[in-house]
């Protein structure tokens, strides 16, 4: 019995190792010279820790720009999609109106539709309206794409809180907008956080739309930017590694700070989907 | 209160911003895609209505597309037969409580939060013919001149992309299973213990049947995720070499944005949508009985 437990534990460790090792490898080769990576030390810790790989990534490429762009796209998407979906979900979960189930159905369907299906017409619309290529050209599709999941997560939460709380507050005669902003929003804060994490990860890591709708370096996001300089500097693994670590660091840091919430968030997304 | 929650003006103010945005930038484009797929259209010339001809051509004339569909089915197979069983097993072991439960959960899930671009680039370097880790390892085991380029050989290119695809989302499904198992009431397990049920019986008679709705969710996610797969393959091989690792989404992308085949590419895009909906429907039907049993326990 004890033996069995030990074997089980060893297996768990082994799988943990396979999950961690590629990331360890990425981090170490981002700090090595090509001599080490290609020569005698492909796996071990760097013999010389070359932090200048990071310096080079910042000075030789547009990494800072890409990083700030990604921060902007993600934050703006989180903020706008958060507010819009909190309101829409409120109307769907709480208000009484005729087309409620139709609208719910539209958003529910939205979760199942793959983004690539709308890619070309979206491209054309953004092109015609002159939005393509600028910040809005990516931001608007990101917000639209984030809404369904965010709304589903929030509806689930609204349904779990008792309606009496709002009734007590709203009976005092404050208008519905004030009631929403001062009573409802604070109550659903945890659900908004859950939905926001989901939105943030999706936006920060998004590749296909960013690759299709943005053609100038100025508006490029990290994933596309790094992909392009990975082709350009294909032999300089240290530099590419540094870029990849920079692109990954924010999600990993946030993950370690909020790992419980992130896990809840992605499970919530799955269960609501 | 009821009165206030029913006022049309309020409803409109709350719903319309999200609804208009979503309909105009997600739903309408989707329907336009569907419409394009019925036309011969290259973006500039005239649009000629040709009915279902594009769809027929997909299967009758386009061997790259058939290959791409088969590849995506291979990915579905790998997800269902390798990824999900590993995830389920891990979830069952972890949910029963082991030392370091939270640590393992956190580590297994870690790759999920990383961009597929990074995952793709990273594994490209793993598979690199001269300096890749895999070949280093093989050389260290004795084959000192071994230099095989996994990603640029048609035989291994797609298989090499399967590995990170399966690897990245093990933790995701593990976590959904884990949450599902944790939400099963302890009463069942206590009752089983009193009845002297073996571990195997507990797993097969209690945990798995009650987990049916969660397994359904994971199966649907696995299938639709595989059918629409794009990022990782686009980054690692771009569908090459010589279309060997193509999936429907990468072919579609090339047809739309490199070759300007708007009508034909849209048929491929719409095919993916139909496929996803169809499989979701079939899986839901298949699980219906199991779910009924689960709620009857």
Automatic annotation (TrEMBL), chain A:
Pfam families: BPD_transp_1. The chain crosses the membrane at residues 71-93, 102-123, 135-158, 179-201, 237-258. Keywords: Cell membrane, Membrane, Transmembrane, Transmembrane helix, Transport. It is a multi-pass membrane protein. One of its GO terms (biological process) is transmembrane transport. Signal peptide: none annotated. It comes from the Bacteria. It is found in: Cell membrane. GO terms for cellular component: plasma membrane. PANTHER family: ABC TRANSPORTER PERMEASE PROTEIN MG189-RELATED (PTHR43744:SF12), ABC TRANSPORTER PERMEASE PROTEIN MG189-RELATED-RELATED (PTHR43744). This is Sugar ABC transporter permease.
UniProtKB/TrEMBL annotation, chain B:
Belongs to the binding-protein-dependent transport system permease family. It comes from the Bacteria. Pfam families: BPD_transp_1 (PF00528). InterPro entries: ABC_transporter_permease, MetI-like, MetI-like_sf. Residues 69-283 form the ABC transmembrane type-1 domain. One of its GO terms (biological process) is transmembrane transport. It is a multi-pass membrane protein. Gene3D superfamilies: MetI-like (1.10.3720.10). This is ABC transporter permease. It is found in: Cell membrane. The chain crosses the membrane at residues 12-39, 73-95, 107-124, 157-179, 261-283. GO terms for cellular component: plasma membrane. Keywords: Cell membrane, Membrane, Transmembrane, Transmembrane helix, Transport.
């Amino acid at each position: 019995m004890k033996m069995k437990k030990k074997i089980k534990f060893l297996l768990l460790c082994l799988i943990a190792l396979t999950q961690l090792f590629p990331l360890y490898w990425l981090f170490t080769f981002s700090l090595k010279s090509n001599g080490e990576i290609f020569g005698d030390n492909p796996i071990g810790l760097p013999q010389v820790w070359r932090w200048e790989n990071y310096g080079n990534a910042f000075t030789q490429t547009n990494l800072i720009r890409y990083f700030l762009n990604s921060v902007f796209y993600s934050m703006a998407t989180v903020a706008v999609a958060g507010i819009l979906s909190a309101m829409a979900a409120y109307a769907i979960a709480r208000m009484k109106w005729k087309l409620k189930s139709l609208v719910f159905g539209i958003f529910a369907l939205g979760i199942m539709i793959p983004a690539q299906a709308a890619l070309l017409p979206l491209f054309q619309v953004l092109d015609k309206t002159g939005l393509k290529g600028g910040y809005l050209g990516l931001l608007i599709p990101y917000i639209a794409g984030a809404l369904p999941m965010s709304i589903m997560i929030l509806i689930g939460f609204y349904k779990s809180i008792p309606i009496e709380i709002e009734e007590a507050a709203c009976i005092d005669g404050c208008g519905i907008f004030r009631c929403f902003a001062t009573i409802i929003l604070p109550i659903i804060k945890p659900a908004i956080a859950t939905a926001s994490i989901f939105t943030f990860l999706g936006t920060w890591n998004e590749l296909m739309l960013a690759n299709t709708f943005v053609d100038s370096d100025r508006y490029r996001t990290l994933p596309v930017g790094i992909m392009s300089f990975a082709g350009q500097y294909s032999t300089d693994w240290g530099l590419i590694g540094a870029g990849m670590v920079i692109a990954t660091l924010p999600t990993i840091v946030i993950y370690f700070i909020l790992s419980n919430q992130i896990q809840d968030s992605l499970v919530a997304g799955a269960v609501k989907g | 209160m009821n009165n206030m929650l029913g006022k049309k003006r309020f409803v409109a103010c709350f719903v319309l911003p999200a609804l208009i945005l979503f309909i105009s930038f997600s739903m309408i484009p989707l329907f336009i895609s569907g419409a394009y797929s019925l036309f011969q259209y290259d973006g500039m010339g005239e649009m000629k209505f040709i009915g279902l001809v594009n769809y027929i051509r997909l299967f009758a004339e386009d061997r790259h597309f058939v290959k791409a569909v088969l590849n995506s089915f291979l990915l579905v197979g790998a997800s269902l037969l390798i990824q999900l069983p590993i995830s389920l097993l891990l979830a069952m072991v972890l949910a029963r409580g082991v030392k370091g439960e939270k640590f393992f959960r956190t580590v297994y899930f870690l790759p999920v939060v990383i961009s597929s671009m990074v995952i793709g680039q990273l594994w490209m370097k793993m598979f690199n013919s001269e300096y890749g880790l895999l070949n280093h390892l093989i050389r260290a085991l004795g084959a000192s001149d071994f230099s095989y380029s996994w990603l640029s050989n048609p035989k291994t290119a797609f298989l090499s992309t399967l590995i990170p695809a399966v690897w990245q989302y093990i933790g995701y499904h593990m976590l959904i299973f884990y949450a599902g198992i944790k939400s099963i009431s302890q009463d069942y397990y206590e009752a089983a213990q009193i009845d002297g049920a073996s571990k195997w019986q507990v797993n097969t008679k209690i945990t798995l049947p009650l987990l049916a709705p969660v397994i359904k969710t994971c199966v649907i996610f696995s299938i639709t995720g595989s059918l629409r797969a794009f990022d990782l393959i686009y980054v690692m091989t771009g569908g090459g070499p010589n279309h060997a690792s193509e999936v429907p989404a990468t072919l579609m992308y090339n047809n739309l944005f490199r070759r300007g085949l708007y009508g034909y590419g849209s048929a491929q895009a719409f095919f993916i949508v139909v496929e996803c909906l169809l499989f979701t429907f079939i899986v839901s039907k298949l699980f219906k009985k199991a779910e009924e049993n689960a709620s009857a326990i």
